[in-house]
Amino acid sequence: CLLCFSRSPGAGLEGLFRFVECSMRQSGDGDAGESWGPPVMLQRPYSLDVSAQLLRTQAFIDGRWVSAASTFPVLDPATGEEIAKVSDCGTMEAQDAVNAACKAFHLWKNHTAKERSILLRKWFDLINQHKEDLAKLITAECGKPMKESIGEMTYSASFLEWFSEEARRVYGDIVAPSAKDRKILLLKQPVGVASIITPWNFPSAMITRKVGAALAVGCTVVVKPAEDTPLSALALAELSVQAGIPPGVFNVVPCSREKTPAVGELLCTDPLVAKISFTGSTATGKILLRHAAGTVKRVSMELGGHAPFIVFDSADVDKAVAGAMVSKFRNTGQTCVCSNRFLVQSGIHDAFMEKLAKAMDAELKFGHGSEPATTQGPLINTRAAEKVENQIADAVAQGAVIVRGGKRLEGSFMQPTLLSNVNTDMQCMREETFGPLIPVVKFNTEQEALAIANASPVGLAGYFYSRDISQIWRVAEQMEVGMVGVNEGLISTTETSFGGIKQSGFGREGSKYGIDEYLEIKYMCLGGLSL
């Protein structure tokens, strides 16, 4: 559950700064082979060298920095060391934020589209100016390698740029009437106060993707960031002030895991809140939907995924391997659109497995995210590592073979793992992993692959590789997902719609459609005209 994901500090610091010995490769019969690269030493965590203005630890409500009665720790997931103590907001602070957003809404919605556009653009410019410091915050609190954190900040800023432009393109309609004495207009208006509940794996981009659209059309927001990663949200709040966003338009209420259920419930049930946007697990999304039903709120949900990655005999194997690497191991497998279920056709299976194993050996390196060479940081906490560990154990118990990795390392580090001889009954094929695990199922026919891919109750993203143009059209249309990558493992971009089908949620973010999530359509009939 991304909303209530527990924090577990893991092993003490004394053990964290020892050499971490990589485990042995496993041959097909389970015998130890050669060692997988040199041992990796976890460095003592780097000093969080960011601008003091950006390292904020209080709540941000109605344009003011507000302390709560207590605090909660934010931990470096690579070491378990405390980075900062952040105000632990409860329902009182959340209610204050909702009230402030409601008051500000009546002023913000009357700003012209051009005025809102200019302020969003200033916010975008400030994020780019402070990109490196903001990336350091991401790496510190969620463990992401610095190169990926810089990439996230570019992605995060792009949504403010995009929606600053879309703000001036919210068009209504003039409809031809059936009666001569009437004029019919369809107007688009902001829904009101929006509760924005975001996950830890993209602690900046998941906020701007929602907030950019909301503010562009005149909505105001209350952001509840994940308890693991509040610092990025608070830094965005500081830059919103510098950009000139008025008080009450953008509010941030960080809180601990213990207070999250109560705060989340208030943000989903308060009658002043008109809209809820949530990114997180399907289980948590269902809870929030039940909360929202009482006051019939507008809701958009980007929920869990379990993406299939299909490699057909017609595929370019090298490109498929490259796509698998970027799709699976970005953020150490902790993305909602990363590939989870790998299906490889029998004619190409062995070549794919051999090349993928070599790519893993050559390209993946453990370490603290602040180290330039690191490609694989920690999982967010030890509970996340335990989940991956349990999926591997379940698969092996049912006959899967460990080709690479397979072992838990110190704290929340997990070896990137490649499994062969996988079947669809295994836990890793039925549940989203959110970690660096590649289970590979061998299949024979296109129909068989589609049946396995579509058997999941969720449908966020899916990927496949093929050079058969007829097959590309057939498979792309039949895959039951909201987003399809064809010969491409990295598909997220500002200009396109992001969202899923089935139990992966509803609504879309990004693109020209993302702005519609924060708009109501009002029909206006002007009658009694003498024409």
Automatic annotation (TrEMBL):
Per the record, a Pfam family? Answer: Aldedh
Look up keyword Transmembrane and say if it applies: no
Q: Where is the Aldehyde dehydrogenase domain?
A: 65-523
Query: Which subcellular locations apply to this protein?
Result: Mitochondrion
> Is Chaperone among the key words of this record?
no
Major subcellular location class: mitochondrion
Its GO CC terms are: mitochondrion
Span-the-membrane segments of this chain are none
Q: What SUPFAM superfamilies does its record include?
A: ALDH-like
Family stated for the protein in its record: Belongs to the aldehyde dehydrogenase family.
Protein role: Catalyzes one step in the degradation of the inhibitory neurotransmitter gamma-aminobutyric acid (GABA).
Q: What is this protein called?
A: Succinate-semialdehyde dehydrogenase
Organism of provenance: Sinocyclocheilus anshuiensis
Report which gene this protein is encoded by: LOC107704995
